[in-house]
Amino acid sequence: MTKKKIGILGASGYTGADAVRLLARHPNAEITALTANTHAGKAMSEVFPHFFMLDLPKLVEWEKVDWTRLDAVFCGLPHGTTQEIIAAVLKANPGIKILDMSADFRLRNKDSYAQWYGHEHRALELQDEAVYGLTELYREKVMAARLVACPGCYPTAVLLALVPLARAKLIDVDDIIIDAKSGVTGAGRGLKQNTLFSEAGEGLSPYAIGSHRHSAEIEQEIGAAAGSAVTVNFTPHLIPMARGEFCTSYVKLNGATPDDLRAELERAYAKEPFVHVTKKGVLPQTQNVRGSNYVQIGVVADRIKNRAIVLSTLDNLVKGSAGQAIQNMNLMFGLPETTGLEQIALFP
Which of 75, 150, 153, 247 is catalytic? Predict the structure, then answer.
């Protein structure tokens, strides 16, 4: 197969950089355009020195890219800036494939988007066609899509753990508590006081309590699986490491046992290349998936009667962002889903 010509919007961010890292060794991809308006004119290795060995195009302003020459574009721009840019890219090249790693097309309900993101959606005609890109749940739709809205990192970890259980009616979807923790790359590469080493190191801090925007995605997808509106208790925390994510979900059982939950997850993911359900007594750990596109899920009985604890972990920049986007790109181009994504976790 001829290599697909790939562009990356927002290549100077962490998700954009991880897309470059993975695509640089993808046998069917050729990176031909990289944008970063604030770093326009620079070599990628000036912004990320670990790319010193790669022959990459220079960073340019997004307006200067000839989109008609590309087959696919990955978007790593912040939410709110993505909608109009993607609309412009699709106007220039209606046949291009879009892998959006921002939040701008994840929510199907326009009123919900305005509520959570503080402004009306600026590309409603595209919002209607966007496919939610949680690969394991929407594989067939992703294969036929032009625009895929790749999920947030927290929703990916939580939904892979809970959607099969909600769909099978094994848990009470009105009683879900999610304790989530992410490395500081989840906050982006921009300068923020709370992500400075002296502020984030040697400590643990919650943020966006009761108001994190990823709650909307989690509720949207668990609600779809359960067939009813859902509200979850979701609290994220910042942990002092660069990458990695761990979600602990406390659930009430619907006449099931923790072993039933594990069996349902094993059944749901028996043929999935990147989702691993641990054996009874084996606990997921962030170091088991660091740098990889893999997800680990485990189930433990709670000491409280009729409750269980579901554990899930992934790398927030890979399966939680760039890796999942590449997994979706593979499907959109009819490639083997695992192409370019079979790296083993980096340990220690």
Answer: 153
Catalytic site includes residue 153: yes
**Distances in whole angstroms, Cα of residue 324 to Cα of each of 233, 282, 292, 337, 342:** 25, 25, 10, 10, 12
- pLDDT for res 279: 98
Alpha helices in the chain (DSSP H): 14-23, 44-47, 82-92, 110-117, 124-127, 135-143, 153-167, 197-200, 214-226, 258-268, 323-332
Domain limits, the chain: 4-129, 154-316
Locus of tokens 């609290």: 235
Please list the ranges in the chain whose pLDDT falls under 70: none
Q: What is the pLDDT of residue 198?
A: 84
Third-level CATH fold of 154-316? Dihydrodipicolinate Reductase; domain 2 (3.30.360)
Q: Tell me what pLDDT residue 149 has.
A: 98
Q: How many CB atoms neighbour CB 19 within 10 A?
A: 33
Best CA proximity match to 151, nearest among 129, 164, 133 = 133
Full strand arrangement of the beta sheet holding 29-35: 59-60, 29-35, 4-9, 72-75, 97-100, 147-149, 131-132
Distance of CA 240 to the CA centre of its chain: 20
89's tokens: 């890219």
* Distance between CA atoms of residues 51 and 91, nearest Å: 32
pLDDT at site 41: 96
Tokens of 316: 């927030």
Q: What is the CATH number of domain 4-129?
A: 3.40.50.720
What are the pLDDT digits (tens) for 285-334?
999 999 999 999 999 999 999 999 999 999 999 999 999 999 999 999 99
pLDDT score recorded for residue 78: 86
Determine whether 159 is exposed, middle or buried from the number of CB atoms within 10 Å of its CB (0-12, 13-18, 19+).
buried
Closest CA to 236 of 313, 285, 181: 181
DSSP state letter for 37: G
